[in-house]
Amino acid sequence: MKIVIIGNGSLGDSLIEYISREGHNITVVDEDRDAVTAVVNKYDVMGVCGSGASVETQREAGVESADVVISVAGEDELNLLCCMMAKKLGAKHTIARVRDPRYLNQQSFMESGLGVDVIINPEYEAAREAGRLIRFPAAMKLEKFAQGKAEALEIHIGKGHPFVGQPLIKFKSKYSTNVLICAAKRGDNVIIPGGDYVIEEGDTISVAGSRPDITDLFVKTGLVGKHLRDIVIIGGDGTSTYLARQLTDSGYKVKIIEQDREKCEELSELVPKATIICGDPTDPDVLDDEGLDNADACVVMTPNDQRNFIISMFAQTRNVKKIISRLSSPTFVKLASNAGIDSNITPGVLVASKVIRYLRGLVGMEDHENSGQLKSLHKLVGGRVEALEFDVAEDFDALGMPLRQVKLKKNLIIAALIRENSVIYPNGETALLAGDSVIVMTTNENLCDLDDILL
Amino acid sequence: MNIKMMRYVLGRLLLVEAALMALPLSVMIIYGEYSQLGAMLVPMAILALLGTLGIAIRPKEQALGAKDGFVTVGLSWILLSAFGALPFVLSGLIPNYVDALFETVSGFTTTGSSVLFAEDFAKLWSPESSLVGMRGIFFWRSFTNWIGGMGVLVFVLAVMPKQDMKSSRLVHVMRAEMPGPKVDKIVSTVKKTSAIMYGIYAAMTLSQVALLICGGMDVYEALCTSFATAGTGGFSIWADSMASFGGIAAPEFCTWVIAIFMFLFAVNFNVYFLILTGKIASALFSEELIWFTGIVLASTAFLTYNIYSNNYFSTLGESIRHAFFQVSTVISTTGFATTDYDLWPYASKTVLLILMFIGACAGSTGGGIKVSRLVIALKSAVSEIRHMGRPRQVEKIRFEKKPVDNDTVRGVLAFIVSYIFLFFASFLAVSVLDGKSIETTFSAIAACINNIGPGLGEVGPAKNFAFFSPLSKIILSLDMLLGRLEIFPIVMLFSPSVWREK
């Protein structure tokens, strides 16, 4: 497909990285000539220098014949304008980034009324992710499927973790659970493990299953800690606003530390139930005075990676149980996990998953008769594993066949399926029926359609 | 440097070369030259073996930096020529390996300087010893021109598997091989850009083949001649180049066809892409094309006047034909000749010598300094002079209606300075080694570094390069590579600092 991406900031960059891996033809538009040169050198894309909201530039970038135009420039209004222009010029689909919390309520109007097909809001996505992690602190990362009926989460196996030394084949009987371990990362290698895989210290594993089953497993292994209550959020940008609203609404005690007084005042209007502190979050005295050492969780959400990293390290010295840190650069994510801060949120990856799901859906509609529409897609283990949810349609090639007869692609596992509102863990005798939802985990890329899982 | 990925790309290159050799091999089979099959099969086997070893392990880390791109391109061309020379040696056409290497480098770099004598050409058609000729080997010789014209790595990129293109940043490889001050993709992926370039190239070559067949050539002659024209190479299958065409039906028609196609292949291929996508106006008003056409028309007019008034040809029409052909052949850096222009008046020879340095347009198959580089350098010089007189003035140079960024201007100036330096270094070296006249040595270096082929004096269109000493031949071969790859890849290959750092 032909895709035009307007704006080459950090979000644009991670979008380009993930989308170019899907094998699309990409043109990047930015006003900064050096940024355009850099992106052309880095990825296999074409660059156009100019303002995204100028018709001339859009024409030069080939918007008229583009399948998708994605606008992720700095300002929300500019993105909306770019998308509306692109639609008028003939682009088939448009995606805009709109992140101002004030526009959150009018998302559906923007999608229907302004002709923008998808609104992406990285800060809102990041806030939701942080919220999930606070509700389920044992996980480093948590994704939901089928309206929350099933979940996939990532766990780091630290020192003395009860899973250490467990071969997967005995896992099921030992904990009498059906929950599947569907992906494992050791060092730099990510695999879909078989039964002979033995969990070691330092691994990162992904498990998938229904909420009660996963909770049950964690209770049995004694991994569910105390419920978190006192949350300190550092930084007062959009993400913090979304998160604080979410948390205060569900009864958490939230304290936000922000340096800028004007922003603090705005926050106290937007999130009346939270305590707003105006102070420099990189100053240890401020953090200690505000009782960081008594907090259950610390969510570091300033827009600056370096600051987030340092504040997280500091929080670690104060024995905060759960530290969630927003880091946009992959290098910092790596450094942070090495230092033991493993709940990192990268807004770019969250949004890229959403955009890629949309793009694969379009490809699926073009290329195949509908054997199973892609419903959701999440990137796990640093973007190396994909968890995908498909609806099974009538014309799926292996409909009704017991799974042991179905030849699946390598590095792929069917983690769970949802039938009539309940989660089923498949075995060799299970068959996929029309109307089911299946959750597939794979290290392969470019699955657009359920038939793509077959060999 | 990512040595593993470079090894992988080079492995692919060797496999592609082995595959390309299948074409001359089939020519040998068609013409029944079975005794020479070994000359093609042995190199093919070696290339296939080395290539398979090279691509056996797919490197994990695939990113190639700018420097890697240059070094890969430099190494590729040296390997390509080293193996490409084997068929000439094994068939016995050019028994000496250094001579064969010179001929092959000359072929791939689309220079067209040759070490062959008239007797060697005779072997192609009517061999004394047996009834079989050497059509296969001569086909390979012409085919090297075609491969080198658009660039063999560009071809490798076009046929590279998609999963290898995702994160390997091969744009640097493409940039290092395609000529011109600023190479950019015409569509968003490297693979597609390469495929489109080769598509245009092949389509134009085939149309020339068709026209030449109409002019009375047989398929073999038309193919070989078109290969040499398309790559702006200049290897002919006749000892007298394009003077008589071995006595075909319509020589004048063929002369015009070749002259016009040489001109067309010297034009930036982006122009053809724009025409294909319907942007005809912006294609035809490309600034570089206007300059190029202007230079060709002015030189043709001057040469016609000069040779006609000096009674070299009896009719005006004949003078125009020869003048246009010679201008086209020299400025496109092809190096065919319809007549021995070494006998022309000094004024005409001087104009031709200057055209050698100007060369073709950027992004074409031709060599030389390139019209766009000279125009940018000229504009920057004018702007600097203006700036001296009025130091507060701020002025941005514009080319093709767009401001030229400073990096491009710096790149152009660095190119011209290194070009002049290397030119005179080899001029001095070859003069010391062989002691030929200034006209001969100067024009020989100019013909090699600008990828033209014949020069003036003892290396004129009716003569050859066989008399140079082996060391001089190696220097001249390096000059050809420097010219074709536009200096930097070869210079980087030989600079220790590139290899020293990790």
Work out the strand percent of chain B. Answer: under 5%
Radius of gyration of chain B: 22 Å
* CATH-defined superfamily of the domain at 2-120 in chain A: NAD(P)-binding Rossmann-like Domain
Taking pLDDT < 50 over at least 5 consecutive residues as the criterion, the unreliable ranges of chain A are none
CATH architecture of the domain at 2-120 in chain A: 3-Layer(aba) Sandwich
Beta-sheet strand percentage of chain A? 25-35%
How far is the first residue's CA from the last residue's CA of chain B? 6 Å
Question: Which CATH class of the domain at 2-120 in chain A is shown?
Answer: Alpha Beta
Give the class of chain B from helix and strand content and strand pairing. Answer: mainly alpha
Tally of separate helices of chain A: 14
Which whole number gives the mean pLDDT of chain B?
89
Q: Within the largest sheet of chain B, what's the order of strands?
A: 1-2
Description:
- The complex is a heterodimer of chains A (455) and B (502).
- Chain A is an alpha/beta fold.
- Among the domains of chain A are: 2-120, 3-Layer(aba) Sandwich (Rossmann fold); 230-320, Rossmann fold; 352-453, Regulator of K+ conductance, C-terminal domain (Alpha-Beta Plaits).
- Helix content of chain A is 33%, strand content 25%.
- Chain A is built from 14 helices and 22 strands.
- Chain A has helices at 10-21, 33-42, 55-60, 76-89, 107-113, 122-135, 168-174, 211-220, 238-249, 261-270, 284-289, 305-317, 330-338, 347-367; strands spanning 2-6, 25-30, 46-49, 68-71, 93-97, 118-120, 141-145, 150-156, 180-186, 189-191, 204-210, 230-234, 253-258, 275-278, 297-300, 322-326, 343-345, 374-380, 385-391, 412-419, 422-424, 437-442.
- In chain A, the strands form 4 sheets. In chain A, strands 3-2-1-4-5-6 form a 6-stranded parallel β-sheet, sandwiched between helices. A 6-stranded parallel β-sheet of chain A has the order 14-13-12-15-16-17, sandwiched between helices.
- By secondary structure, chain B is mainly alpha-helical.
- Chain B has a domain at 402-500.
- Chain B has helices at residues 3-20, 22-30, 37-55, 66-84, 86-91, 97-108, 118-125, 135-150, 152-159, 171-177, 190-214, 219-230, 251-265, 269-276, 280-284, 287-309, 316-331, 346-358, 371-389, 406-434, 438-449, 470-484, 488-493, 496-500, and strands at residues 398-399, 402-403.
- In chain B, strands 1-2 form a two-stranded antiparallel sheet.
- Chain A binds chain B through residues 2, 20-21, 23, 25-27, 33, 40-46, and chain B through 66, 162, 165-167, 169-172, 184-185, 187-192, 405.
